[in-house]
Amino acid sequence: MPELLRKPYREQLVTWIGRPCHFQLLYKISIDGCSASTFHQKCDGQGATVTVLYNTNKTIFGGYLDQSWHSNAGYIYDSNAFLFRLQFNGSSDPLRFPVKNATYAGYGHSSQGPTFGSGHDMYTFSGTITRSGKVFPLNGDFNLGSCYSLNGQDVNSITNNSLQVTDLEVYRVIDGPGQTVPDLDKPWREHDGWTNETMQALKDSLLDYKPMTETSVAAANILLIGQIGAGKSSFFNSVNSIFRGKITSKACSGSFEHSVTTMYRQYKVKDFSKGKLLNFRLCDTRGFEEEFALDAQEISFILDGNIPDRYQFNPLVPFTPDTPGYIKDPNLKDKIHCVAFVIDGSTVDVMSDKVQKRMKDLQVRMNHRGLPQVVFLTKLDKICPDVNDDVKNTFTSTAVCDAVEKVAEVMGLPRAHVLPVKNYESETKLKTTVDILLMEALQRCLDFADDYMDEQLDKMAAEGKNVRAED
Ligand SMILES: Nc1nc2c(ncn2[C@@H]2O[C@H](COP(=O)(O)OP(=O)(O)OP(=O)(O)O)[C@@H](O)[C@H]2O)c(=O)[nH]1
Ligand SMILES: [Mg+2]
Questions:
Q1: 3-state DSSP call for residue 349?
Q2: Domain limits of the chain?
Q3: Class of 196-470 in CATH
Q4: Helix runs in 248-295, H state only
Q5: Which ligand 1 atom is nearest residue 258's CA?
Q6: Which residues approach ligand 1 with their CB closer than 6 A?
Q7: 109 prior amide bond cis, ω within 30
Q8: Could you report the per-residue pLDDT of 172-207, keeping only the tens digit for each?
Q9: Which of 38, 227, 228, 385 has its C-alpha lying 20 to 30 A from 30's C-alpha?
Q10: Model confidence pLDDT, tens digit, residues 236-252
Q11: CA 438 to CA 420: how far, in whole Å?
Q12: CA atoms of 43 and 109, how far apart (whole Å)
């Protein structure tokens, strides 16, 4: 059964419990269903337990009981009990709230889920809770502070105001260090590792990259598109820095009320150690805003290769076939071969309907052309402190995993198409781990671009067109 409670949080609980111990999962509502009878069936008489709730506000809290749960409609005396908060708003922020009235530490009742304190301090749910999507809207009630010392905290600062949980787990606390400690930090996505060798292998593979050999298309075109300030230009700068061998910022990036990028640029990347141009182009666009969207027709022109490099976007006068520089008969080499939506991971939860709609509208045009789409999910460092400390934690971070799921859902794309990255922004030196994440995302994009070109060639062959006419 997949367990959510991460290793650092387990270690924190062990410290609080105050004796060497480990945890065995007894009950998990996302697997077993959320019902008081199942909870009691699985957890009564099991000795010490920890109950952990994970809510939709990325906050993790719960309670510890040294004594067994029961279903006898009576209180459980426990002088060692405590309530706790482990995480708040996606950030680790542990606090322990000791019991102050041991007589009422817990309450066992056949029709109630885990319940702590009289009053009750933490009453999770009663009866059966029906899942709504991925969320269980618990029907309990929290009157925190009656039997537990809150040390200045309140319901809001402990639960982050939500009883909408994605999971609730009860673990049995077993004395002694775990013999076979399960792999608690199992990544949510397979990953090749973070060594210099991995980095070098990725770099070599990108250096060797050539679009499908049957065509004369020299470079794969990847379109970077998304809201202002999402990190489109920074993505190019980051990739460019990797091959430059030092941090550079060729494309203007920054934060401004309107898009910093105003010109369409098809950036090439040069490897400075080998003096070689790489065979892909990163096409940077103006970001869209709440009140300003790229003209849909303009996007079609970009996708089809009608718009020239260095075209100056003008929100007042959209691009037309009469605009100077219009490329009249673009062929496969001019077209976009893969679209990367660049989305700021730290704003995924607050993405407005308007922006979502903008992206959907663009997707319609892309789907129409059979264009592969990925998401570069940026600013991971801002959504998870562990990732901020070290990018290595990306694939074990629940906050990142949640953001990936959310974006995949919003964009209607498979999760595997959502690629977490962290751009270089304040660093002064390259880092192997950051390079790896960026190059993996780029490599995926190029694989998809190849698929697209392959498909286009099949189509052209089927239509009797001379593929070599692309020359
Ligand atoms: N912390 C953090 N900041 C980032 C990241 N990527 C970009 N930024 C910052 O976000 C701001 C906007 O980045 P840009 O690359 O200019 O964004 P853009 O999508 O090109 O924006 P426009 O050109 O205005 O549409 C800059 O201040 C960057 O330094 C990231 O991964 N982490
Ligand atoms: Mg930009």
A1: helix
A2: 7-175, 196-470
A3: alpha beta
A4: none
A5: 24
A6: 228-234, 253-255, 259-261, 287, 342, 378-379, 381-382, 422-423, 425
A7: no
A8: 999 987 644 444 456 788 888 899 999 999 999 999
A9: 385
A10: 999 999 999 999 888 88
A11: 8
A12: 12
